[in-house]
Write a structure and sequence with these properties.
The protein is α/β, with parallel strands linked by helices. About 40% of the residues are buried. Bound molecules: 1,4-dihydronicotinamide adenine dinucleotide (NAI) and the ligand O=C(O)C(=O)[C@H](O)COP(=O)(O)O. The site of the ligand O=C(O)C(=O)[C@H](O)COP(=O)(O)O has 10 residues, from loops.
């Protein structure tokens, strides 16, 4: 079996080498010729899996994308050609949740805001949106959810219309990119939506760049009442509207989901789907594949208040690191891909085991691991 895999996927060798001949290639440069002989294709979000790419791939039987988003894959084409497709739903939802909370803690300090009591509108209440909502609730924020598809499908949670969610102090977007249908998300934040916002509001995009009209946003930022923006994703990555960057509070190169755990879970979920497809049990367990974190144990001597929580969160992951790397290291589209390829290790909060006498439920609700006294 010939397996072609994106060079930026972790764990491919230990999980897939036994199944055939493995070739690793840069995902953005995959061409019809390079995948022509493939039986199995393993990609990330930068590879457009479409008619053109698969035009010579006569033997292809399985495509796996180690990502949550699937807008880069023509799934109807794969179905027509009888090619099995698997993505990795939820694989990096914790990473996205932690990115958003780190960003909120940074902005709260910068603008002297008290998160507890502030309102958060979550647009898209699936895996990542829920991960954000749960952590924000644990910080005392008032959360409202906007998700018309789930509301229409009878999800028992309470939902508000988009216009209502847009009035929140913080509005965080977690929708898939869709261009058609009643719930299309392309340019969900357009000139009209921007016109109802005021400059005190914080807007976060950690889903897909095209969900926000970047030109309309730049026009808004150049006016008298700019918004407080946190942008992880951009229209036309990696060739983005660079003029926007100086008008953001935090800017990063599409790494919200890049915790080590999140990336590894993505490959692992594809491995599970692949094993299921070939009718074999997934032999390898996930936990032993994760390396030990540099910092894994800490004892707390006081109740974890907002300030201590902020310090704990930023001990594990501080979004300002990624913002600084991006602001200083990004000039050309190639830099965008380089920063992503050489992304420094980042662990999830659960990698830190806290020994705490008080506030254990609160720490657990945020996603830290609790250590048991020796
Ligand atoms: N920046 C990054 O690194 C990452 C970005 N993503 C992006 O985030 C997106 C969301 O991820 P998940 O939450 O895991 O997906 P999900 O599929 O679990 O949830 C998406 C939710 O959005 C809702 N939705 C769809 N159209 C909507 C609309 N017009 N208005 C409001 N809600 C709408 C859906 O009903 C669904 O509940 C992914 O599709 C992916 O594109 C995901 C992971 C990492
Ligand atoms: O999972 C998703 O969806 C994402 O957006 C990924 O985190 C993006 O990572 P790459 O696939 O572009 O490496």
């Amino acid at each position: 079996m010939k397996i072609i895999a994106d060079e930026n996927m972790p764990l491919v060798e230990p999980l897939f080498a036994d199944f055939g001949e493995l070739t690793r290639l840069p995902g953005r440069q995959l061409s019809p010729a390079s995948v022509a002989e493939a039986d199995v294709l393993l990609v990330r979000s930068v590879t457009q899996v479409d008619e053109r790419l698969l035009s010579q791939a006569a033997h292809l039987k399985f495509v796996g994308s180690a990502t949550i988003g699937t807008d880069h894959v023509d799934q109807a084409l794969l179905a027509r050609r009888g090619i099995r497709f698997a993505s990795a739903p939820g694989c990096n939802k914790i990473s996205v949740g932690e990115y958003v909370i780190s960003a909120l803690l940074v902005l709260a300090e910068r603008h002297q805001l008290h998160l507890s009591g502030m309102t958060l509108g979550v647009i898209g209440a699936g895996n990542t949106g829920t991960a954000v909502a749960e952590r924000a609730l644990a910080l005392g924020m008032q959360v409202c959810l906007c998700d018309p598809p789930l509301a229409d499908a009878g999800d028992p949670r309470e939902f508000v219309p988009y216009e209502v969610a847009l009035c929140s102090d913080v509005v965080s977007f977690h929708v898939p990119l869709t261009r058609e249908g009643p719930y299309a998300t392309w340019h969900l934040l357009d000139e009209a939506a921007l016109s109802v916002l005021d400059g005190e509001q914080i807007l976060i995009n950690a889903c897909r760049g095209d969900v926000w009209d970047n030109q309309a946003l730049l026009a808004r930022q150049l006016g008298a009442d700019p918004l407080r923006l946190v942008m992880d994703v951009w229209e036309q990555e990696p060739d983005l509207l660079t003029a926007l960057i100086p008008h953001t509070e935090l800017a990063t190169p599409h790494i919200a989901g890049y915790s080590l755990e999140g990336k590894m879970r993505g490959t692992y979920q594809i491995y599970q789907a692949f094993c299921d497809w070939i009718g074999q049990p997934a032999q390898q367990p996930f936990a032993p594949l994760l390396p030990k974190p540099a910092l894994d144990r800490l004892a707390l001597q006081q109740l974890p208040d907002q300030d201590l929580l902020k310090r704990l969160v930023h001990l594990v992951y501080d979004v300002r690191r990624d913002d600084a790397l991006f602001r200083h290291g990004f000039t050309t589209p190639a830099d965008f891909d380089r920063l992503r390829k050489h992304y420094p290790e980042r662990r999830e909060w659960s990698s830190l085991h806290l020994l705490a006498a008080e506030g254990r439920e609160h720490l657990a609700a945020l996603g830290f691991s609790l250590a048991t006294p020796a």
